[in-house]
Amino acid sequence: MNAEHSYLDALQLDRGQRVPLHRQIYERMRSAIEQRMLQPGNRVASARALASELGVARSTVEAAYQQLTGEGYLVARGQAGTVVSAHLPPPVSRAAGPRTVDRHSRKHSSALPNALPQGTAPPPFQLGTPALDAFPRKQWTRLAARRLRMTSTADMFYGDPCGYGPLRQAIATYLLVSRGIACRPEQVFVTAGYRASLAFVVRTLLKPGDRVWTEDPGYPPTRDVLEHAGNRPVAIPVDSEGMLVAHGIRHAPKARMAVVTPSHQAPLGVSLTLPRRLQLLDWASRTNAWIVEDDYDGEYRYSGAPLPALKSLDAHDRVIYAGSFSKTLYPGLALGYLVVPERLVDTCIEAARTWSNGCPQITQATVADFMSASHFSRHLKKTRLLYARRRAMLVAALAAVFGEKVRVDLTSGGMHLIARFTSRVGDRELARRAQQAGLNAQSLSGRYAARRGHNHSDKGLLLGFTNIASADEAMRLCTRLREVLK
Ligand SMILES: Cc1ncc(COP(=O)(O)O)c(C=O)c1O
Predict the structure, then answer these.
(1) What CATH number has the domain bearing residue 88?
(2) Is the CB of 265 under 6 A from ligand 1?
(3) Which of 114, 188, 360, 437 qualifies as a FRET site for 93, CA 20 to 30 Å off?
(4) Distance, CA of 335 to CA of 326 (rounded, Å)
(5) Euclidean distance between CA atoms 240 and 411, whole angstroms
(6) % of residues, the chain, pLDDT over 90
(7) Ligand 1 test: best mutation among 110, 324, 415, most atoms within 8 Å of CB?
(8) What is the pLDDT of residue 100?
(9) How far is the centre of ligand 1, averaged over its atoms, from the C-alpha of 326 (Å)?
(10) Global confidence as pTM
(11) What is the pLDDT of residue 96?
């Protein structure tokens, strides 16, 4: 029996249905291909043989075959017959239906928005949230209200899907001054945040099945976005110098992309050292791979000036820089941006025009005004000092409440710290208990993709400190944490 007979059962037609027979054959065959009951390269039955097997007219099968060929599932090889295409998207499971990527989805997809119920403030220790009490609402509201009042009929039409011109200009200026990146405004693309940026890049530059280096431990949405797009993340370990580039070169030299957080590795907080940066750039230029630099909180460094971005060293134009206003302004804004290499500008314009209506114009215009009136740089300066103080308050409170039972390794920056407790209970369980008590601590070991045996340094609680308003509050939260972890 050859391969074509094994799927004939799945082709049983339902003559009572109103769906035409050729459509039924098309759908069942497509699903058999997607589920890999028919493998790429397999020869399928000739239209005549299948028609006779199913008891339908030959033209009925031919109509189905024509559609499958037109969509690229089948390839007609003349005398050699018709075969399943060798270029298929990754397989999907039967239960998932034909168009989903169930094979890749995980039980607790972290790509879901971290939305809270309406009217609820972020819980204590929430990661990645800027100090919401320190946001300059007055200036912001004034600028936003002015923009609303100024809305003309022209402003009510579609905006540029690549981003609002003055905002792209303001971002380019800011990046030059603050992150050492020299780019033209045309290289800046405004997006709905980091995930949207990554999805845009992946969809524009990668093919399903392409391998991508990701940091391990890492930021779970990065893997989720890649997997959802049908790419294959390759977990590359991180040590005290950042991503182990040599490991990637050894184990997945042909990866098409690497996603890194060079300023503050998420979640360990270490910086990618200069030798590793150069090694990564060298690998990318040798293999024509892309690097996505996720610079989500590069501004928040408490000892010394912020490190220049990896993009600033990018002599061969392989780095795609991804920034976000979620940390520097607030996450509800849902705005981020990409800086793409010069050679990708046209491709990205085309992709943006194809897929998107762009981000809301009024919001973009308000951010542009906020930046050009220097409120942005002032806000960053103020919050950098504030976070250094709030971090010190949390460190002091942890020491006072837990004494010898906690170790905190401070890194040079970031918006959370890692508290490592001496406890026989695993960090996932500790995090679960804390969350049940309304404290949004996250486990470090939960951020690892590879389920290797974790040692002590892979365990700990990730605690956001940016919204801890006073030393008293820090003490109260740590006392609550102690009760929960007992
Ligand atoms: C590692 C990392 N990258 C990017 C972001 C920003 O994501 P977004 O722009 O989707 O809010 C975050 C936010 O928490 C993050 O932790």
Answers:
(1) 1.10.10.10
(2) no
(3) 114
(4) 7
(5) 10
(6) 68
(7) 324
(8) 32
(9) 7
(10) 0.78
(11) 36
Average pLDDT of every residue of the chain: 89
- Which band of pLDDT confidence, cut at 50, 70 and 90, is reported for residue 456? low
For ligand 1, atom 14, which residue shows the shortest CA distance?
Answer: 128
460 lines ligand 1 (CB under 6 A): no
Secondary structure (3-state) at 89 = coil
Q: Dihedrals φ, ψ of 242, to 5°?
A: 95, -160
Residue 130 near ligand 1, beta carbon < 6 Å:
no
Statement: residue 419 has pLDDT above 60: yes
Distance between Cα 297 and ligand 1 center (Å): 8
- Give a yes or no: residue 122 inside a domain: no
Question: Cα angle at 96 between 95 and 98, to 5 degrees?
Answer: 110
Q: What is the pLDDT of residue 103?
A: 36
Strand order in the sheet with 74-76: 43-44, 82-84, 74-76
342 and 451 housed in the same domain: no
Among 333, 355, 373, which residue terminates a domain?
A: 373
pLDDT per residue as tens digits for the range 9-39: 677 787 777 788 888 888 888 877 877 777 7
Residue 333 has pLDDT above 90, yes or no: yes
Average pLDDT on 403-410 reads 93
Whether residue 363 is contained in a domain is answered as yes
- The parent domain of residue 58 ranges over 3-104
Question: Residues with Cβ < 8 Å from 285, sequence gap 6 or more?
Answer: 315, 316, 318
